[in-house]
Amino acid sequence: MIVSLVAVLLIGAIAWSGAVAGFQSLLGVALPLLAAVVFVCGIIWRITCWWAKSPVPFAIPTTGGQERSLDWIKPNRLDTPMSNAAVVGRMILEVLLFRSLFRNTSAEVSSVGPRVTYFSSKWLWVFALTFHYCFLVIFIRHFRFFIEPVPVCLTWLEFFDGIMQVGVPRLFMTDMLIVVAVLFLFGRRLANPKVRYISLANDYFPLFLIMGIIGTGICMRYFDKVDIAQAKVFIMGILHFTPQSAVGLNPLFFTHVALVSVLLIYFPFSKLMHMGGIFMSPTRNMRCNTREVRHVNPWNNPNAPYRTYAEYEDDFRDLMAEAGLPLEKQPEDVEPAAPAPSK
């Protein structure tokens, strides 16, 4: 955790120092363009050269309900999807509402017994959903810096996001909610011993990076103000490949841009790619029709010799009985083999 925190602080310090030293073009033009190229190419590489080439010879969907079998047994069409329509419905609920996370449970070993106790865990689902939707709304709101004139839908989105009209400039609800959500996700990694044990540097680094992006963005809006009009002119110049002067822009702006650029570069090669990986996951996008269709491994060698379990048990029955392993036939139930005919 400390290494990840130091790395993010170092990135921010380098970006701030570079902006003060006059490297605005490097931080505000070259780095974002490089990040955009790496982001797009990295996602394409991850999908085409990694996931698309991963063989899936068998049906391995994650199931959580009754599969379709007899007519009088009611199947669970979403948790055990048997048709393409059911798979699409399951994916929609998974992507938009995090359905599997909603059904998540926690397990603890009770001191009485001892025994394992399972209980519902909805807080993680609430804050994870809050974080992702707030991040999405903030991302969409930033399109006003890239589009001229600003579409009416973005104006309405800003209106509803800041409908409480708290302070000047107007306080956006998503700004506050995403801070609460990301602090909960970070605190959970520290407070839960099991999660803390399995957390690595590549878990903390994007978390600290997102905290830095959120923090610098909030500071630019509510505390250390940035000239929004000049920032938009600068960004529009990058989009039209006619870079504008960055003189007068707050160094905090370039720190924010640098952190976002690092996140874009890091994104395709990290666990954050679960955003796209969920669509490529065979545990989610496959039908559960193993009772209707026999799935045969296409790599099986038809000429390879195979031993049945009955043959295996015949060879090792005495040893298995001695070890106490379950047997279909006990040694005393097996008829002795007929003696070989004499020559």
Automatic annotation (TrEMBL):
Compartments, as annotated in UniProt: Cell membrane
Gene Ontology MF term list: oxidoreductase activity
One cellular component (GO) term of this entry: plasma membrane
This protein's record includes keyword Oxidoreductase: yes
Bilayer topology: Multi-pass membrane protein
InterPro entries (UniProt xref): DsrM, NarG-like_domain, NarG-like_sf
Any single Pfam family the record assigns to this protein: Nitrate_red_gam
UniProt keywords, alphabetically: Cell membrane, Membrane, Oxidoreductase, Transmembrane, Transmembrane helix
Keyword 4Fe-4S included in the entry's annotation: no
Residue intervals passing through the bilayer: 27-45, 123-143, 163-185, 205-223, 249-269
Domain of life (superkingdom): Bacteria
Gene3D superfamilies: Transmembrane di-heme cytochromes, Chain C
SUPFAM superfamilies linked to this entry: Respiratory nitrate reductase 1 gamma chain
Highest classification ranks of the organism: Bacteria, Pseudomonadati, Thermodesulfobacteriota, Desulfovibrionia, Desulfovibrionales
Protein name per UniProt: Nitrate reductase 1, gamma subunit
Predominant place of localization: membrane
Domain NarG-like, chain residue ranges per copy: 93-275
